[in-house]
């Protein structure tokens, strides 16, 4: 009787160990697949520095392959950024995604402001909110200059952020 109990106990433990051995790779696969769907920041070489007019923001589309949990889509637009070269040559970049609800923010040259056509949020050229419902300023992106065959190119780390909240919180 005792022996039978002991064997039952041992087979229960072996069953649990076996189930764990099977579950760990399966969960790893599931989490890696779901994680693949999240777009992390990536660096994009977008323009030559000399092609930017000082003080005038220019919009660039980010083209990349979109990958969700199960599917790889062909390369296409995944977002866009506003890049400005200052009079001193320093470069800044903002995501064109409105931090209110995600519409594409435009630039109004006459007013020298960014403007979102969806609910009329407006932003200064440094990204700060001027008016409207946006809970924070435009999301600034990291930039760097890279010399390629004697020319300076602007590279931007593109990243998406949560909308509708005051905190700048990266997605992915
Ligand atoms: S989405 Fe831009 S103001 Fe609402």
From TrEMBL:
Cofactor: [2Fe-2S] cluster
Residue ranges annotated for the Rieske domain, each copy included: 83-152
GO molecular function ontology, one term from the record: metal ion binding
Pfam families assigned: Rieske
Keyword tags: 2Fe-2S, Disulfide bond, Iron, Iron-sulfur, Membrane, Metal-binding, Transmembrane, Transmembrane helix
CC per GO annotation: membrane
Keyword Manganese in record: no
Signal peptide: none
InterPro entries in the cross-refs: Rieske_2Fe-2S (IPR017941), Rieske_2Fe-2S_sf (IPR036922), Rieske_Fe-S_prot (IPR014349), Rieske_Fe-S_prot_C (IPR005805)
Taxonomic superkingdom: Bacteria
Transmembrane segments: 12-31
Entry keyword annotation includes Lipid biosynthesis: no
SUPFAM superfamilies, A to Z: ISP domain (SSF50022)
Protein name per the record: Cytochrome b6-f complex iron-sulfur subunit
Organism: Gimesia panareensis
